[in-house]
Amino acid sequence: MREFPRSFTEQQPIPAAGIERATEVMASGKLHRYNLGPGETDDAALLEQEFAGYVGRRYCVACNSGGFALHIALRALLPERGTPVLCNAFTLSPVPGAIHNAGGVTVPVETDESLTIDCDDLRLAAETHDARFLVLTHMRGHIADMDAVAALCAELGITLIEDCAHTMGAYWRNRPSGAHGTAACFSTQSNKHINSGEGGLLVTDDAELAARAVLYTGSYMFYDSHLAAPPRARVGELSGEIPNYSGRMDRLRAALLRPQLSELEARREHWNALYRRLEGRLAQADGITLPQRHAAAEYVGSSLQFWAEGLALEQFPDFISRCADRGVPVAWFGNPSARGYTSNFRHWRYLSVERALPKTQNVLSRLCDIRLPLTFTEEDCALIGEIIDDSLQATRPE
Ligand SMILES: *Cc1c(COP(=O)(O)O)cnc(C)c1O
């Protein structure tokens, strides 16, 4: 039996232009974004300008992480401590973490078989908890019917914040993911679609929110060097009122990221070719079901989810270890305990609002997940699919 020969920890190198610019920044020693001599431009300000243009938003604020971007977007919007904030229950731990950090109270909402938010439950949760804010994670790149979500948010007076950690480079009806809410937050952590180790980007058209975000990141009185922020006077008006939470992005990270932005389209094409090859192979496997995508969503297949429908829950550890023994790390969202990056709403014991989420529980119980490093080839994906299929058939009862 063939083992998978490559490592799932592989990463693409930083583009040469990024390494070159980062080397210049390091040689100058001027890594802080506001340490600028006359005539010098700040790489972080340029990144913000370029990224705002990419998503089609007026303002962008670069942060030290995606979770921090979510935190300050919520800080800027929530009227008081204890404000209920809706989020799809199928999300990653930084989302309830950011809501908590901003003084909000997480109200989890059901996820359906499309792995996106259940709009009926969204209405119910909003009405029951009198909630007016929603952090919508396009989890693992699955984009909800944004027409339906936008209509419901408008009807119920809900402010939408998009968590686009898995949809940088994706589109909904030909508009970039992140252009549909009041604000959107992206991550540039190494496992996402562009890589600076750590980093986050907040975009919005709301000048008040952007001004607050610039100040929350810790811009001292240097915010006039920003190129995608509201006018200086607008930021200045608020400066004494907004605490400095110190979460800036530095020039070095921005230098690494700028050349990656122009690679996003090509990365999406490659990721989707890998995705389709693995999806095609798994579609032939007995006992595997694959999620459907909305036709209006142009996704980025940087990871793949599937349901091992044919297995009893107690057989999952055996299935996962058979895959692992052949070099394929499959994650399982139904795991009773959190593993690696994979946790689910039942693991976040600090959440104070209890909602029975039978649909989400059912959807996650047999849901498996595999990351697709961009360095892999379509042939690699065919072998990964074969290993998953073999392991599943070996685990299943006769
Ligand atoms: C990675 C991630 C974040 C936060 O990003 P960090 O940069 O790691 O803070 C938020 N939401 C989701 C769904 C993520 O995967």
Automatic annotation (TrEMBL):
Classification of source organism: Bacteria, Pseudomonadati, Pseudomonadota, Gammaproteobacteria, Chromatiales
Gene Ontology terms describing biological process: polysaccharide biosynthetic process
Alphabetical list of Gene3D superfamilies matching this protein: Aspartate Aminotransferase, domain 1 (3.90.1150.10), Type I PLP-dependent aspartate aminotransferase-like (Major domain) (3.40.640.10)
Stored InterPro entries: DegT/StrS_aminotransferase, PyrdxlP-dep_Trfase, PyrdxlP-dep_Trfase_major, PyrdxlP-dep_Trfase_small
Lineage: superkingdom: Bacteria
Protein name: Aminotransferase
Keywords: Aminotransferase, Pyridoxal phosphate, Transferase
Pfam families cross-referenced by the UniProt entry: DegT_DnrJ_EryC1
Keyword Transferase among record annotations: yes
A single MF term (Gene Ontology): pyridoxal phosphate binding
Keyword Transferase: yes
Signal peptide: none
Family: Belongs to the DegT/DnrJ/EryC1 family.
Organism of this sequence: Sediminicurvatus halobius
